[in-house]
Amino acid sequence: MNLTERTQFEEAVGVTRTTINRWIRGEKGWPRPDNVKRLLAILTEEQQQEFLVLARKDPEFWEQLHATVSEEPANLPPLPPKWLDSFCYRLLRLQRDTPKPYRQLTGAILKEALTRLESHPNTGLEIIVATCMPPKDGKVRSLRASVGMGTSPWPDHQHTLNSLMGIESLAGYVVTKGHGEVIADLSDSSSLQLQVERATDAGSAAAFPILTQTHGTAGALLALSTQKNFFTEERITMLEIFADTIRLAFSETQFMSCIELGVLPPWDVQHTYFDSFRRRVNDAHQKALREGASPIHSEEQVFAQIEYELLQAGDRMEVHF
């Protein structure tokens, strides 16, 4: 920082050079909240986040700052919720200590998300992770609903899902657009008419892409509620946080940059293909053994076959969305 920049900095924050030097040497406590508001206003977004991470290390100052930000939220960047630090720490340890952490990490994140989002015992909630299928001719053509967890009427344990989603789905829509979307009332014909994965009991839905700016998109996080208008601003923010944290479950190779989703049939058509899924996997497994090949990828091969068949069926359908 040159002399001119330093002078501008001092004037913007409203403190003397002596005070800033004492902050740097650790001879003076944290800046007053009013000074912090002015400080954050002139920092870049990256510098703001670095400052907030440091501030959290002092509980007393953090409480004071948090109260100040809550009074004037429009003037400061949003602060992460207090529970997020310990939760992310647990996820990082799990990622470090687990050889193939996808299922363990997604399970931990879905469980935490259900706890944070649920507000009433009579409100059913399901959260689904949809992942990009392996590319065909260099392009991702569909998403696989890989794992889910919910509350009644949905299964309350981590469960595997066998279905595919294309551009006609809410998950496919947010992956294609690159931003989250909420459908407050699924019965409202004036809202986006997108499929939400067998959601016969759902009243509202929300989804966010799982993405990074450098590596692309790995899929989407989809949430369904039996209650209409369930996804308030607070819940939408939390869901976006979980879509960000679930990136830890994916390797870099699972993020795709070339995505061109096709149209897929609804679940009442898809299930006629997936009803024979296990039999087809077993047949592929036995065929590989007979031919002296490895059967380890039999399930992925059958999924790719079903994806192809469903894309063909989707091409023959007249779909409006």
UniProtKB/TrEMBL annotation:
Residue ranges crossing the lipid bilayer per the database entry: none
Domain HTH cro/C1-type: 7-43
CDD domains named in the record: HTH_XRE (cd00093)
Signal peptide: none
InterPro entries from the UniProt entry: Cro/C1-type_HTH, GAF-like_dom_sf
Domain of life (superkingdom): Bacteria
Name this protein carries in UniProt: HTH cro/C1-type domain-containing protein
Annotated organism of origin: Reticulibacter mediterranei
Higher taxonomy: Bacteria, Bacillati, Chloroflexota, Ktedonobacteria, Ktedonobacterales
